[in-house]
Every structure is written in structure tokens, then in C-alpha cells.
Sequence to fold (239 residues):
Amino acid sequence: MDDAYWTRFALFHFPYEPEIDTILRTSVGRTSLFCDLGANKGFWTSRAAPLFQKVISVEASAQTFSILKQNAKDLQNVRLHHAAIHNQTGEELTFVNTYLSHASARLLQDGTAGQADQTETVTTLKVDDLVPVGMPALIKMDVEGAEVSAIEGAARTLNDGSVLIYEDHGADHDCAPSAHFLSRPEMRLYSIEDGLKPVKSLDQIRQIKTDTYKGYNFLAAQKNSPLLGAIVEHFANHT
Fold:
């Protein structure tokens, strides 16, 4: 697909998040499944569809999901879900679509809605009910403040060797998702925005997150994950 194809996603710059593109291409042939959780309009879903045997794409906003559905209509190996990723399946969550900024969506419990904002209730899914048992998937998660709950719902999946690309937002001084991983000795954590660099402390995370308006991408997996090992080996051989 040429660059003109990607203009439908209304990105501010291109190439978009090249570090994630590198991880995707490194994982080709090492896993058959890519999960795009918090898929928005489907940029990474569409990018991953030619690379992986199967793609699972999940988006919580009904309006955005309708655009995702249109963008992915010709991708036969993509399975779409209108749902919110959380720690349990089948519950209901209400979140706020911030006026003029879906990227700032948040759970209603995290603050009141503004006058021009819209609230929406959606059913939840947990990662462990999406990824088949024993399959190490490559997972990209961008769930706008619900990361820790979403990670808790991926316990079995991560134990099976899946690799997770997740966002730790610059405005989160507590670095909640990274702190969750760093508290678990069996997990390994990496910064991916400038190569693949091990992260072992929250101080390192805070030094990386210099812009409070930006979401920073990190990678996490169990230390014995073969998929993680292949990714680490690739970066070691290409730097």
C-alpha cells in the first residue's frame, strides 16, 4: 500500500510511530496473531493485516468503530470487536469522549464530563478471552488510562509468551502501567522509541517521558518469551 492510502487515518505526520512498525516487521513469521487493542480508525490494523495470518482489532467508541469497520472492510483476516479492553469480560464501562479529541477519552470515574463532551457505555472484553491458549501474540494496547486493568486481564496471555506494546502517558507521573510491570520480577520492560533499551526503574521511565502531552510506547513480556527473544536478537543484530 502506498503512502496515499494512510491519509484516510488523518495522521499528523508520516511515518507514524516507526518504532512500532519495526516491532511488527520483526515479529513476522514468529507469531501468526496481532492484536490491535484501542484500534481507533485502524491504522495499525490495516498495517498489520498483510503481515500476520490473523488480526484482532478492538475499539470502544461507537463512532470510531464505524470508521474502523469501513477501513477494514476488505481485510479478510481481521476480526473486529466493538468493546472496551478491561480485566473482565461482559461488564459495562462508561467513558467520556472528550470534545474534539477522541484520543483524550477516559473512564467517567476518572472525572466528570465537560459540557460539550459525550458519554458512552460499552461492554468489556479481557485479553485472555481474545487470544487462544498457548498462542504467543504480538499485542498493541492503547486504552486511554485503563492500562493496568487491561494488563490484569492479560495474565494468561502474557504467561503464554505474548509481547505487549503499551502506552505510558507523559502526564502520568506515577507511570502506572510501567510500575505494574516493574513490580513483577518475571517481566522484562523495554523502551522502543530509540531502539530497544531495557528499563529497570521508574526513574528511567520518567526521564524518557519529557512531554506531558505525549503517550510513550514501551514493550513488555515475560523474560522467557521466545517472541521477545527474537525481537531482542533482531535489534542486537541491527544496531
